[in-house]
Amino acid sequence: MSACTPETAELGDEFLPLLADPRYHDYHYHGLLDPCDHASHQLAQLRAIAAGPGGRALAAREGLIPRGLCVFSRLCWDSELLGRSIWQLGPVLTADGTAEAVAAELLERALTAIEAEGGEVVVAKLPAEDLHAAHRLCSRGFYQWDTVLTLVHLRGAPRPSGSPRCAVGPFEDEDLPVLQDLAGTSFQANRYYLDPALRSDQVDDLYATWVSNYSRGLLPGSACLVARGEGRPLGFLCWRRDQLLFERLGLSVIGRGLMAVAPEARGRGVGAALVAATIAETEARHLAAEFDCVLTASNAMRLYAGFGLPMLRARQTYHLTVRDRPRNPIA
What we know:
By secondary structure, this protein is α+β, with helices and mostly antiparallel strands. It has two domains: about 5-150 and about 315-325, 3-Layer(aba) Sandwich (Aminopeptidase); about 160-305, Gcn5-related N-acetyltransferase (GNAT) (Aminopeptidase, 3-Layer(aba) Sandwich), CATH 3.40.630. Helix content is about 35%, strand content about 30%. The protein contains ten helices and 13 strands. Strands 1, 2, 3, 4, 5, 6, 7, 8, 9, 10, 11, 12 and 13 form a 13-stranded mixed beta sheet that branches. Helix 9 (about 270-285) links the parallel strand 11 (about 255-260) and strand 12. Helix 5 packs antiparallel against helix 7. The radius of gyration is 21 Å and the shape is globular. The model has no long low-confidence stretch (mean pLDDT about 90).
């Protein structure tokens, strides 16, 4: 094997020096994790991806020293609901001073392995400021489909005063049909709808199943709040705790959720009531709550700005239709 040729690897602690880039650290705010904990947690995240169905870690080494790393695995839930073999590709991480050709070779080897396993669509997420990684993906045929902004409320932070304009309470079983209908019609600006390789009716089902699983607590640390008026649900906000962070370090951060308001109830304070209730839940039981919205969702941006929520990060999502990828990409 020549120097820096990628090969399958076990993710030991020798890879920690590759994980120093703060752009890839989720919990940098307010000293929630120090740099060493960040690197250790990110390594645990990468191990979880590599341990998934069909998962693998590819590493490039110079002698015994890791110079680059890439992980990938199949997204079973997305694949089942969307009727395509969908894979997640972790970031291509390299040590300082490593040639771009090493990162390019890691990416190409990963895509070749995914294709050999029957992969049809590959999903990759990057910090918006990592322009080199974005260029690398685009040269392999990826398209950017959305930019997601994440804002945060940290327990103890100031919050607006005032009373909610509608009642908010926990999910009840009879809410589910309304929430599923609302979930299936509220997220057309999101990436799965925008990708022409995927069927919109199947994406509807994915979001309806997503809110069902979170509402009924079928995933660890998941929950849902429902806004009600006129005897029926007017909107919902559901979330899931970062279970890996909770199990490893005992820190409870909620997010990765969905929020939707019925069209006829918009502009009536329903979204604000849901956010206020989630912040109250955070103050009582969690360390922080993260709120995501796509960059084009101006109403959601105004809502979060009204609560004074600071922005943590902007991430771009890229999709690749595997059969269309270039066979002789330009590095």
